[in-house]
Design brief:
The chain has about 375 residues and is an all-beta fold. It has no helices and 28 strands. The strands form seven sheets. The protein has a four-stranded antiparallel sheet, with no helix packed on it. It has a four-stranded antiparallel sheet with strand order 2-3-4-5, with no helix packed on it. The two termini are about 65 Å apart. The N terminus and C terminus are likely disordered.
């Protein structure tokens, strides 16, 4: 007997559960509880953060891990800018300017010529500007090795926002002496400035940061005196502004690309724009800390945000949720049944006929 096996396969689909659409900002350990006020992330993956009591942190893996640096000061530091992984400047209270040329291993104290707190610093090439309280404005032409004063000694107000768009064009944003938003621009590398007072749609307040995409289109973030926040946008170099309002004060900006910008603010607020600042949408930060600054690599995906209590948040997806995977079918075979072969009947032998008797022939002589 022989057997023949017939295989039957059945398919059953099992689906992988889809991921929840959480924002992709994650906290990383800073190993400090000091408030962190300024941040910069370079495309090389080197990053620096500054904060209270002279805190300076450094990362060499795009913000994943951080190590403290010895700043040599106990003054609160508000702003930081690096021209490359080695050369950078930090500014802070009491006219403090610190400069390094070895990636933060050592910091040199630079004479600023002012006693007010310096709140912001920005460079384009070797030319840089710094803004501070009492409407102090400084400029440098040698990568921060020395500084000259454009103006100082005003009553009230200051410039927590500064940006060098090119070697000669720069912007600062803050507040004037009568508690109105104040904006200024320079076309000669910070030597002279043109000022403009404005209101957030007829509401007083102060600017916290500034970011221009070109000489005409830019945004300023702000705090309004009813406790809310604002982002004002201009397309004519600051002559006219349109304003959006938010529940919390808005502070730092980062525009790694013209069509992709980020803003941070109080109570963990993170905003994202994809249309050069016309509209903004919330991202889930997962934090309730007041956030003061944000910085991104030029890929617009890898970024860091810093805030009170040593909070550092990091993203590698531009703050957006990771894609939800498609359901994956899993094929499971059923047990293989076997079929028993049917035996063939053996043929019945045919009966042979009985031979007929033959007559006996006669004998001779009978």
């Amino acid at each position: 007997m022989s057997g023949i096996r017939v295989i039957h396969v059945a398919f059953f689909l099992f689906f992988v559960s889809s991921l929840s659409a959480f924002g992709q900002w994650s906290p990383v350990s800073s190993e400090t509880t000091s408030n962190l006020n300024g941040a910069i992330l370079l495309d090389s993956g080197t990053a620096f953060v500054v904060g209270d009591i002279g805190t300076i942190l450094k990362s060499t893996d795009a913000g994943t891990t951080w190590a403290p640096l010895v700043s040599g000061t106990s003054m609160t530091l508000h702003g930081v800018y690096f021209l490359d992984p080695n050369e950078g400047v930090a500014v802070g209270d009491g006219g403090t300017i610190l400069r390094t040329t070895d990636g933060g291993a050592g910091w040199q104290s630079i004479t600023s010529g002012v006693k007010d707190s310096l709140r912001s610093v920005s460079f384009n090439g070797t030319n840089g500007i710094s803004g501070g309280d009492s409407q102090d404005l400084l400029y440098s032409t040698d990568s921060g090795a020395s500084w000259q004063i454009s103006q100082s000694g005003f009553l009230g107000g200051g410039f927590p926002g500064a940006q060098m768009l090119s070697a000669t064009t720069g912007f600062v944003a803050g507040q004037n002496s009568i508690l109105e938003p104040l904006f200024a621009n320079t076309t000669d590398g910070g030597v002279t400035w043109a000022f403009q007072n404005f209101l957030f749609e007829n509401i007083e307040g102060g600017c916290n940061d500034v970011s221009f995409l070109d000489q005409n289109t830019g945004v300023v973030s702000g705090s309004v005196f009813d406790g809310t926040g604002a982002i004002a946008r201009t397309t004519d170099g600051g002559m006219n502004w349109s304003t959006l309002f938010f529940d919390q004060p808005i502070e730092g900006f980062a525009f790694p690309r013209a069509a992709s910008g980020f803003a941070v603010g109080a109570v963990g607020r993170i905003l994202h724009t994809t249309d050069t600042g016309i509209t903004w949408t919330d991202q889930a930060s997962g934090s309730s800390a007041n956030l003061h600054d944000v910085s991104f690599a030029s890929d617009a995906l890898t970024g860091i945000a810093v805030g009170d209590g040593g909070v550092i948040l990091r993203t590698t997806t531009g703050g957006e949720p990771s894609p939800t995977p498609s359901p994956t079918p899993i094929v499971t075979p059923t047990p293989t049944p076997s079929i028993t072969a049917t035996p063939r009947p053996s043929p019945t032998p045919r009966s042979r006929p009985t031979p007929r008797p033959r007559p006996t022939p006669p004998q001779p002589g009978r």
